[in-house]
User: Fold this.
Amino acid sequence: MRQAKKAPETMPRALAKSPTGIQGLDEVTEGGLPTGRPTLVCGSAGCGKTLLAIEFLVRGAVEQNEPGVFVAFEETEEELTKNVASLGFDLNDLVARKKILLDHVHLERNEIQETGEYDLEGLFIRLGYAIDSIGAQRVVLDTIESLFAGLSNHSLLRSELRRLFRWLKDKGVTAIITGERGEGTLTRQGLEEYVSDCVILLDHRLAEQISTRRLRIIKYRGSTHGTNEYPFLIDENGISVMPVTSLGLDHPASMERISTGIPRLDAMLGGKGYYRGSSVLVSGTAGTGKTSVAAHFAEAACRRKERCLFFCFEESRSQILRNMRSIGMDLEPHVQSGLLEFVTARPTLHGLETHLALIQRAIREFKPGIVVMDPITNFLAVGTPSESKAMLMRLVDFLKSGRITALVTSLTESSHSLEQSEVGLSSLIDTWLLLRDLESNGERNRGLYIIKARGLAHSNQIREFVLTDHGAELVDVYLGPEGILTGSARVAQEAQDRRTQSERQQEIERKRLDLKRKRETMQAQIAVLQAELEAEEAYMQKLIAQEETRETGLLQDRAEMARSRKADPARATGAAAKKTAAPGRKPTTGKV
Amino acid sequence: MNPLTTGPQESPPGEAGEEFWELRLYVAGKTPKSLTAIANLRKICEDRLAGRYTVEVIDLLENPQLAAGEKILALPTLVRKLPEPVRKLIGDLSNAERVLVGLDIMPGTAKE
Assistant:
């Protein structure tokens, strides 16, 4: 219905776009420059207008097979060819293959006498002929404003330019017109009035003596586009625009865990280390061992045959290799096998955006599984805190979207609160390890905490972080009545403990021996008594036996007597029984 | 060769010491400006350089490839090929004073 109401068939489709082939620019413009329409590229001197234009032509010719015409008002063909050769473009070859046609329009005011009315039909004819001769679909006019310096009749020039842009549209060529930045206007001669379909502003700004190139799309009629200022680079590969802010938070979360390289730290992080694709911050004051933690992580990755990119912003590659060798870690083989690569740069070398762009390019090219940045705090020297944070946020987003595990270190100034990471990074970070100095008894020792570890059952304990000649180790700190003890105090306390313990054990042993001796003594006494008793008993038995024998003898004697007296046998037996009833008393008394 | 190639094609009269003028006028089609320029040029040449000049009128609509060679931008353009050095004048040549200055034609060379 809406289609029917609007124009026939092509209208509902989005505006046709011609890819520029310039890295990032097509993403920002969502497809390229408007096909068949002129685009104004403006900016101050030296901001890369000509280069952007020529790259548009070269990439169009090489990648899209769209021939292009370059009309240079400022440089001659030879100069132009030479200038872009350093960027890897061989214009001579493209010209020979009729992919690109260069035309230098020479205009010198004092060589030309104006004698009456004229128009720019000559330019139209030249351009038209050039376009037709190679079937050009792309045209660049660089910088057409030079006409205003060469010709005096400006009102005529304006109307001719208006006609020219109209004519370019009618020709159906995709054109770039470059213009010098003016005072308060985009271009000196107000070209933006005539070229109004798409306007791209290039900028080259200095902040703190560091320059950053930026690109912004001011206007893009009939299309949505990225509206931010995007940093861009000019290097041996031409222009790269970095549309990094377009990243969303839709990266998938991995359940895979990877080792930190320090077994005890793995244990502290729920036994298996970090999540793959997470971001780890190691913060701490100077000399707390941040780089060592980072190097352990890198080394563990290399041992798993993962690629690791190590950005050093403070030390050189060989310095890190040497320093890690001192704690018994040899990274050299990994460097040689190509698993580990160092990228070293001073943060003050470029602006933040340029750094971001360079980092991203290095990551895209190396395709690492993990990335280490040591330390990120140095970026603060380059930009304001908010800029640094924005840059790091984009960096973290970029890494996360690529499922790259990142470990960044952050130097905390001792005057700041330790829990405050310099650049306010904490909210971006999944796992945060804090290394800190524990100062007591005239010495400093290193302590390690896990401040947070999203999604990990992590230990809440503080560990002493010890750098040994066979790597970093985590040791339990001494928790005693006097608080946390580390270092030599811990060692002393542990020795003290051992001493106390052995004393206690000796005491126990002594008591045990005591008991044994007592038992033995008692048992000896018992034995003596027993023996005495037995002896007594035996003696008594003997006496009893004697008494009984005597008694029996007596009875017999009596019986004999009775028999001899002819006594009554019944009474005689009864008396005998009475006598035997108390035999015990008699012998005793008898004995005494 | 060119239908618009006009102007007196008389051979140089061979006056000793006199310079010979070779002029080339670039136009685009028979626009009023072109025609005005041609008329103005003819008048000036007749007045000042009678018998000592050739004029070639080139229509770039027919020979567009010539535009780049001569670095033509504005039209009409008058190019003084001879005497050296080459000079360029743009416009319809209606300002005779400027044309004379531009072509470096001495007032003294005017015909009485």
User: Anything to note?
Assistant: Confidence is low (pLDDT under 50) at residues 1-11, 586-592 of chain A. The interface with chain B takes residues 103, 105-107, 111-123, 125-126, 128-130, 133, 147, 151 of chain A (CB under 8 Å).
